[in-house]
Every structure is written in structure tokens, then in C-alpha cells.
Predict the structure.
Amino acid sequence: MAVDGASDYVVFDHVQKSYDGEELVVKDLNLNIAKGEFVTMLGPSGSGKTTCLMMLAGFESVTHGEIRLNGRPINNIPPHKRGIGMVFQNYALFPHMTVEENLAFPLSVRGMGRSEREQRVRNALDMVQMGEFGKRRPAQLSGGQQQRIALARALVFEPELVLMDEPLGALDKQLREHMQYEIKHLHERLGVSVVYVTHDQTEALTMSDRVAVFNHGVIQQLAPPADLYERPQNAFVAQFIGENNKLVGSVDAINGEVADVVLPGGERCQATVVNCEGVGKNTLLSIRPERVLVGDEAVSNATSATVKELIYLGDHIRARLDVYGNDEFIVKVPNKSNHAMLSVGSEVRVGWVTDDCRALDAA
Amino acid sequence: MRATAVRSLGFNKRKSRGFMSDQVMNSSGPMLAADGTPLKAKLARAERTQRIRAAVLVMPLFLFILITFIAPIFNMLYRSVENKIVTDTLPKTAAVIGEWDSGIDAVPDEAVFSAFAEDFKAAIAAREHTKLGSRLNYEKAGIASLFRKTGRRLKKFDFDQPLKPQFLAVDDKWGDTEIWQTIQQFAHPLTMGYYYAALDLEAGPDGVNLVAENQRQYLRLFWRTLWMSLLITGLCFSMAYPVAYLLSILPMKSSNLLMILVLLPFWTSLLARTSAWKVLLQREGVINETLVQLGFVATDNRLELINNTFGTITAMTHILLPFMILPLFSVMRTIPPSYVRAARSLGATEFTAFWRVYFPQTISGIGAGSILVFILSIGYYITPELVGGRTGVFISSRIAYHVLTSLNWGLAASLGSLLLIGVLVVYWLYDRIVGIDNVKLG
């Protein structure tokens, strides 16, 4: 890995974690986070992502391995000396203090003088556009306002690393999307490093520089959002990020980047080799619904399919087809002028570019 | 500082409530329902059945409380000042004795004596005079025997002759100013006499004063009840806080087990628990025996652990502990661990995080537990009576004595009323300092 300090700001070095001594919640985690980077840990619940965050914050011990912050091992440093800002899922604003007192808390425990404290609290409140709310108590604020205060409190003592544990989970959809942009812009403006935990893939794709997809305590893929969506490395990532059509087949031959795959009905198609185990082995073909070509556009890898169901969604039409015996095959037909007209029960030609069909592990 | 912060929270709550009702008031003109009748009347009619049903459901409990709790309290308050025995038994005397001034004449004049003689004759006929005698005997020793003696001799009195000499001939005590002062003092249907007695005061010729040092007993008992209750509350708090904290952070399975241990005393009779302390603490008890066996204490120098202040405090702290643990636990359980974590991540040491973030949030539980334990212990009877000996009993023991043994219900009522007033004062103080809105019992 790179040795210059900037790209190794946070390092997880062969980190393992077990709660009961029988099962590993985090299995051999290696992750480098650069200074100023926004990294999201994404995964289903129980995948170990929150545990990783808690180990970084210092609330969970590390069973094996080492976590380094700015080149310094922090395994044995108590949380209050790590200087890491943190935003919690339920905001954890102290209910018996006003907003100002909440923000002043990290400053006063650092022994900062009154006038500087007040100045910083004011700046932090202005930063999140909550200037007039200083005298309120958390209970008198809405969810989104509490969220902003929690953010301001995690930033007010100017940490270089901020951890966020599903901070938007309790907000409604619209507010959540709005806050995603706000957090993203704050990150860009302040240049702090952010480690963000979520189980919402849209959130991860919207905000992150890189996303680490967790499952069963292992990082399945660590990549920028576009790569993650367009070039998933394995079946789990392909299914977890976005919508995905699955076809199971076995590899007949591999010619460089392209695999010839035989489907259960005897049909053949070509797919890009990504993560299949070799000739004669089963593989899972992954095709995104919006990459499936319909009607006259279907040239390569074309086959005929039966339309099972149509749902009109305005900007596109969602069609459920029977393709190669899989009747859960979804196709998104864009609602543009002279798009292919489908009707339930009819036969239609579908196909895809070999690049868009990825041969993955048969999980 | 913390207390004011909490109070201002309560204040805000009240203020916002007021604001809401203002809004309702401001709506202009009566709203009308679709059929033109006023909306309020319509609503009242629509909800009448529900309200009647609710009232019927609540009625049994309401009546029960009214009959067994509210009424007796008023009865007690009345009894503590009620004093009709003199006016009922000696109506004519009561009417004229007010004119007598003990500062001018040492003994009332003939008019009072003749009124008294007539009253007394009627009282003898009704067999009321001994009752009155023993009642007045609480106030002035010797009146009971004087009344009995005079009662036996009254039938020989010549009602046509001046009666004053005839009374004095029966007993010199009829010339005693204090006897007549007592009668005069109690010739009103209401009296503060019981309260004076309950506070070790006496109304003498020169106003209300403390009784002689060696006769004072109630003030000392009130004081002891107060400081021991405070001490027991403090001990309960210091022991319950860590236990409640442990209960709130342990995983469900182990916390349930621990909770059973906390609740176990609730499932055992109070008498059994107190007796168990007797077994443990007495001179030949488990603790002393063990200490003697281990050689820490000489056998002729065993520790006095029971029948004193120590015994009462030990046993009562144990018995009242769950009343502190439960409200604390119920408050602590609702404090998510993320608060302390947030404080730690913001740079607070473990102690600062506890003191500035965790502890203030438990104040409502501390308040609830303390007020509960204090109020319970201030009126506790059985336990101090059984393990308190002479130096460890509470005011409740004297109340019981006057109710059951001396039958001086007026004094018992005034002692009880003082206790009630004390509790109300504590409650008021608590509301001022912490705010009763912030009490959480579960």
C-alpha cells in the first residue's frame, strides 16, 4: 500500500473482532482511508460495519490487528483522547442542555476559555444555519434540526476525522436527501475525513468518494460509487447495489475477457469474465435492468422473451419478462418517443451488449 | 445550578401549555356544527356517553378513596382541634366562665360555681362527669380524682345556699387557680391544646412556652424521625444508584435475575423481614456469633446492633431500598448508552461524561426515589417499633400509643396532622427545587 501519510490517514491493519470468542464479526479487515476522503461503509445489518466504526471510535476493543490514525496506533487510546468527532444514529444530543451548551460541551471539557468557546459555538451554529436556535433544547427541535446540531457538535472542536453512524436513518425521505447534500457540501468545504456507516445504498452512492461494501464481516468491494454500480466484483455486490437480473449458467469456454456460458435450457450467451471460477464451473450472470435492449435494438446475445407484467412509472416502463426460464427478469424500457411497445403475454426480442453482462461467482 | 436548569425546563413546559390554550381562546365567535347548533354543545352531546362510562368506571375507586382516605384525613384534622367535651358537658359554666379573669380573682365568683354545680349535677345524672374528669386530667393532673370525689358528695349540696364554700369544703383544690384555668381554657369548642402538647408547648399565664426540659418528648421524637429518615434516604440512594445502573446496563437475562433479587423483599412479609434482622443483629445473633467465633469481638463485649438507632437505620434502609432502586432503574433504562458515548467522543473523561451527561438525566429518578423513601420512612411504624428499642423509635410509635393505649385521640390526631404537614412541606420544597413534573416513577 501507499506509504505517504496522506493516503494512510486511517489504517485498519488485519483487524479482527469477536464478541463471544466463537464467531468473528469482523474478519481480517484491511482498509486505508486518505486524509479528506469520504468513505462509506455499506452493508446489511449484522455485516460488521457499525462494529468497525465503533472500534475506530474506541467504544469496542480490537480483538486482533491494529488500527492506526495518522500513523499512530490507537488500539489502547481511550475514546476521549482520539479527537474523533462522531454523529450518532439518534443524534445523542444531551437533553438537559440547550443547543449552545451541547455545542460548548466538547470545548469546555478541553478547558477552552469562555469567549473563544462562544465564538466557536456561534460559528458552528452559523455553519449549519441554526444561528437562532442556540437557546432551545433538543426536544424543541425537529429531527432535521437535531441532525444539524449533532453535526455541528461533532465538528465544533475541529476534528480531522468525523464518524457518522447512520445519521439520517430517522429522517423522512425528502429531508434525508436534502441532508445528504448538506453533509457532502460540508465535507467538501471543511476538508475533514469522514467515515460514514449506512445500509442505504443511495445514500452511499450520493455522498462517498469510495464505498466499502460489507457482508459477513468482510469487505466485498471497495470502490468509487460508479465502479461499484457498473463493475460489481461479485454476486453480493451486484445484488446489493441497485437492481440486478440474475441468470445461472455454466462456463463452457473462456476466450480472454469473454466467457461462453451455457444456460440451463441449452442456449448460449456471452459474458464478460469478472469473477467466475473457470471452465465447467457454474457462474452467475448479472445484467442491470436498464442495460437490457428490447425489440429492434436487441442485436447481440438476443433471445425471445415473454412479457409477464408491465408497470407504468412515468419516466420508464418496468417490464417483468420470462428470459431463459427466469420469469423474474426485469427490464426498464425508457419512456422515450417510439420506444418498443410491449403488451402482456406477447413475445419480444431482448438482448444485451457482452460488456453489460458480467459473469460472477455462483453464490 | 443543575436544579434551576431542570426547573426551567418544567417552566417552559407549563408556558407552552398556556400558549396553546391561548390559541384556542382566540378563535373568534362560537363555531357551529353542520346543522347550526354550537359545535361545543354538539361535541359535549356526542361524548356524553363516553364521559358517563368513564365516570362509572372510576366511581368505585373514587368512593373507596373518599371513604377510606380523604374522609379519615379530615376527621383526623378535625379531631386534632376538636374540644367539645367541656361545652357539651358543662354548657352553663362555659357560658359564664369567660368573664372570669384569673389575673384579678384567683378563684371565680359564686355565679360560676352555681353554674358549675348545676352542670355537674346534670353530668352526674348522665354519668358524664368521670369522662370529662379523665379528659381534663391530660391537661392538669388531679382533676380526675377531684371530679370523682366531688361527684360522690354533690348530692348532699344545698343548692339554696352559696355553693362556692360547699365546693371548697369538699376539696381545697377547688380554690386552685389552675384547675379553673384549665376548665376555662377548654370551654371553647376548638382548641390548640393538642398541638401545644404535640410540640412540647404549654399555654401558661405568661403565654405559650416550651415545657420543662425533662418533660419534653415530642420535639425530640420529631427531630429524630426527621434526621433518621433523611439518613435512611441518603443511604438508600447511595446503595441503590450503582445497583440500578448495573440493572440498566446488563443484558436482559442477567438483569432479570438481579431484578428478582431486588424484588424478593417485596414478596416477603414486612414482619418476616424485620424479624430476620432481629435474628441477624441481636446480641446472640448471627453477626455477633460470627464475630465472636472469629475472635474479633470478646464474648462479654458483644456489639449492640439492635434495639437502638443503628438497628432501625439498618433494617429500614434494607426494607425501603427497592423503592429507590425501581424509579432509578426505570429512568436509567431509558437513557441510551449513546449519550455517554457521545460525551466520550467529544473529549470527556469517563468521570466527566458521567457527571455532566449521565447523572443530570437521572435526577428525575433520584427525586422520585428520594421523595418516596423519605415519605415512607417518616411515617414508618412496625420496623422501628420492633428493632428500634428506646432510642430508635419514631414519632409514629407515640401516635400508636395515644391511639391504642392512652386513648388520647386528640393528641394522636395532632401528632399525625403535624406529620402530614411535614410531608406536604417536603413535597412543596421538592416541587420548588426539582419540579414535580420531573418525577418519574416508571
Notes: The longest strand of chain B covers residues 201-204. The interface with chain A takes residues 5-6, 9, 12, 336, 338-339, 341-350, 352-353, 356-357, 360-361 of chain B (CB under 8 Å). Residues 198 and 415 of chain B are 6 Å apart (CA to CA).
